[in-house]
Structure formats: structure tokens, C-alpha cells
Write a structure and sequence with these properties.
mainly beta; 7-stranded mixed β-sheet; 5-stranded antiparallel β-sheet; 23 strands; 13% helix
């Protein structure tokens, strides 16, 4: 598995697909963009991806694109947190930026966080866990007055509860987590969730709270992600804020939804207003769920990807088959915002093939996957149409979920 996908900004999740499509077609949802971490294999001139829906949700997918980027030498690439593009730096430049920044990390949770600032230069990373309300503060000095400065945030994992699971004539209440993820074997992919439940969770889904998504689109709270902590406060993200020049107030810079399967890095631009007269800044990273952070760094990026002499090739989508029906959808998914969508139900598998004949396998190649669309809760009728979709989940997905639940704050894995 590689990671989860379809995290539009500010959200791709809505109380119903009709509402979601209205926002999406107006351009109110920025499609997700993710740099694949697993090795992408090219077989017979094709890159093959499977998108699997493993949660009691239904999706309307507008497009899927896959771009190849061939980096030069020690170049490194990161996705901007608002999914507006990518930034490029080099390893030597990153080392210099980290040294010049004089990063100091403090936390509401006692511990040693020095390693977080050097994890980007290590082959293995140690993560720290933040629960609802915990925070890290990062103090640093501007390392480059000529270039845009970015906070690198390496994060993953979250606790949440969603929806209800219907199995034929039985109704089972949720145990609390859903995962939308994809794997890259060749690259094989999941875009999905699973739900296995305990009887107490359904009451908690009706709690009111301050979920950040409610302010944007007002989805039904019973269908919105809520935490599994005992505090009862809602949220789903890491909130990045800056203190002003006098360190008296906080201005929100970004809201990051950590992916689930493995650490992923996003670059959050630090505005000039975050620095005082001496070029010092202080940022806070606050958790609204249980999350893991495995890297915090400050870099300067002189160029965004589109302004660098890097070969970027869009791989044509040549095949897109919905396994449940056998129907072909490549013509729909190859076009953006054309008013046509591929609708998926729980348990569905969308098999994709991209033409990679124009590129060569290279250890310097990176692949950027973009997915546009919206998703919503799958009701009893939707799940009835999907059939015995839970039984169709593969062993890898079930095992992954079980191992993930063991790390969570609700450890009832007996129903998986």
C-alpha cells in the first residue's frame, strides 16, 4: 500500500453527492495531489493502478491523472499544502536551510523533539503522537531573504468514526474508523474506507462540535468525521497557525488532513507577516484528532515545479474499468470538470492503466497522482446495491485495518 487519496481542499466529503457536485463544478473543491512514495513499475509500457472503495461510502470521481517527473541529481520535490502545485529544492540546499533556521521545537507534551527537524535527512523516521488538543511550537530564523519559506510537515494517522454499516438484514454500529487509501504495487491503489462497529459509536455521531468542515459546507454532523477521544470535541486535522510579530495573537495559516497509511510531507508557505523585525517566526501545529508527526523542517524554495527545468510528462489514461459492471470509463476520467463522473459504491474496484511508453524507468522519477471528485455516506440502499462488499475486501486490506485499529484509541478489533 502507498497511501490514502482524494483529500480535496477544503473537503471532498459532503452530506450528499448532488451538493458535492455543485460545489465541485463551481471550483470550490481543489482536487487532491499526491506524490507516490512506493516504487512505480512500468510493465509493457503501462502503469497499472487499482482504486478500491473499502468503506461504506459512495464516490463520484471526475478525473484521475498521473504525471511523471524526472528530477536531476539531488533534487527533492514536495507537494504544496493547498494542492496548488509542487516546490523543488536540493538536498544540499535543505541541509543549509535547516542549519540556518536554528529550529527550536516545543510541545504541550513533555519529550525530546529535536529529531523531528533532522528526519528529512534520515532513511528512517521516529514519529511522535499528538492527541486532541496537543500542540508543537516551532521557532526559527528566516534562512533566505530572497526566497519563499516553507514549513515542511511530515504527518500521518488519524482516529475517526463515520457512518453506519449495513449487511443484508443486519445493522451493525460503527467501531470508529474509516480509511481512504491506495496502494502502489504496480501501482495498486485503494481509495476507500472500512467500517466495523460497536454499539456506542452511533450516539457519538450526533454530538455537536466545532468540526472544521462544518463551517465550510455544513454537512450533517452525523455524517461528518468525529474524534474517538473522550473529550467529545470535534475536528479532523492539524491546524497550523502563526503568532504575530509581537507574539500576542495567532493567525491560522493552513489546515492539514494527515493521510492514514504512512507519513506524507506537505509544504506550507510561511508568509512575511509571520516574521518579526529580526527575521524570527513562531508557528504552532495543533492536533484536533490523534495524529502522528514524523518531521518538521524549514526550507526555502527558489522555484516551483512549473518554473524548473524538470521534465514533467502527463501519462495518458488508456483504460478505466469498473470491475463490478465491466464498464469502461477512460473517456470520462481523462477529462476534467466535464460534468460526467464515475460513480462507485462500497467494495468497488476501478482498474486503471496509463500509457508510459514515452518515459523510461529511472530512480530519479517521481509520479504525481491527482484525483478530482466528491464522496458521501453510503446509505442502506447504496450498500444493498453493493452486495456483500465487506466479504469482498482482500486479506491485505483487512489485516492493515486490524493493525491500524490496534494503534488507535478504540481497540475493539474483534469484528474485523
Amino acid at each position: 500500500m502507498d497511501n490514502d487519496v482524494m483529500f480535496g481542499k477544503p473537503t471532498s466529503r459532503f452530506s450528499n453527492l448532488t451538493e458535492g457536485k455543485e460545489h465541485y463544478i463551481k471550483g470550490n473543491v481543489t482536487p487532491d495531489s499526491y506524490i507516490l512514495q512506493n516504487e512505480v513499475k512500468i510493465n509493457d509500457g503501462r502503469v497499472r493502478i487499482q482504486i478500491k472503495e473499502i468503506e461504506p461510502e459512495k464516490s463520484s470521481i471526475d478525473f484521475v491523472t498521473l504525471d511523471s517527473v524526472c528530477l536531476a541529481g539531488e533534487q527533492m520535490i514536495f507537494t504544496k499544502s493547498d494542492f496548488s502545485g509542487e516546490i523543488v529544492t536540493t538536498r544540499s540546499k535543505m541541509v543549509m536551510d535547516l542549519e540556518r533556521s536554528h529550529i527550536v521545537i516545543r510541545s504541550s507534551v513533555p519529550g525530546d523533539y529535536v529529531e523531528l527537524a533532522s528526519n528529512y535527512l534520515q532513511s528512517s523516521k521516529r514519529s511522535v503522537t499528538l492527541n486532541d488538543g496537543d500542540w508543537l511550537e516551532v521557532e526559527f530564523t528566516r534562512s533566505d531573504n530572497e526566497s519563499a519559506q516553507y514549513l515542511l510537515l511530515d504527518s500521518w494517522f488519524r482516529d475517526w468514526m463515520l457512518g453506519e454499516l449495513y449487511l443484508k438484514d443486519r445493522f451493525i454500529y460503527p467501531v470508529g474508523y474509516w480509511i481512504k487509501f491506495f496502494s502502489a504495487a504496480t501501482v495498486s491503489a485503494f481509495i476507500a474506507f472500512v467500517g466495523f462497529f460497536n454499539p456506542l459509536a452511533s450516539h457519538r455521531t450526533n454530538q455537536q462540535g466545532n468540526d472544521l468542515l462544518l463551517g465550510a459546507y455544513g454537512p450533517y454532523h452525523a455524517h461528518a468525521e468525529v474524534p474517538t477521544s473522550s473529550s467529545g470535541s470535534s475536528g479532523r486535522s492539524l491546524i497550523i497557525s502563526s503568532f504575530n510579530k509581537h507574539n500576542t495573537t495567532i493567525d491560522r495559516l493552513e489546515v492539514v488532513e494527515p493521510r492514514y497509511v504512512k507519513p506524507d510531507t506537505v509544504a506550507i508557505e510561511v508568509p512575511d507577516t509571520a516574521y518579526d523585525e529580526a527575521g524570527n517566526a513562531r508557528l504552532r501545529i495543533e492536533a484536533t484528532k490523534r495524529h502522528k508527526i514524523s518531521g518538521v523542517g524549514i526550507i526555502s524554495a527558489q522555484q516551483q515545479l512549473e518554473n524548473t527545468p524538470v521534465a514533467r510528462v502527463s501519462l495518458p489514461l488508456v483504460k478505466a474499468t469498473l470491475d463490478r459492471t465491466g464498464e469502461e470509463y477512460a473517456d470520462i476520467l481523462a477529462m476534467k470538470r466535464n460534468g460526467k463522473y464515475v460513480d462507485t459504491l462500497p467494495g468497488d474496484i476501478l482498474s486503471l492503466e496509463f500509457d508510459a511508453s514515452a518515459i523510461e524507468n529511472s530512480e530519479n522519477s517521481r509520479f504525481i497522482l491527482s484525483v478530482g471528485g466528491v464522496y458521501s455516506y453510503a446509505n442502506e440502499n447504496d450498500q444493498y446495491l453493493a452486495g456483500d462488499w465487506v466479504d469482498r475486501l482482500d486479506t491485505t486490506a483487512k489485516q492493515f485495518l486490524k493493525e491500524t485499529y490496534i494503534q488507535s484509541q478504540m481497540r475493539d478489533v474483534t469484528k474485523i
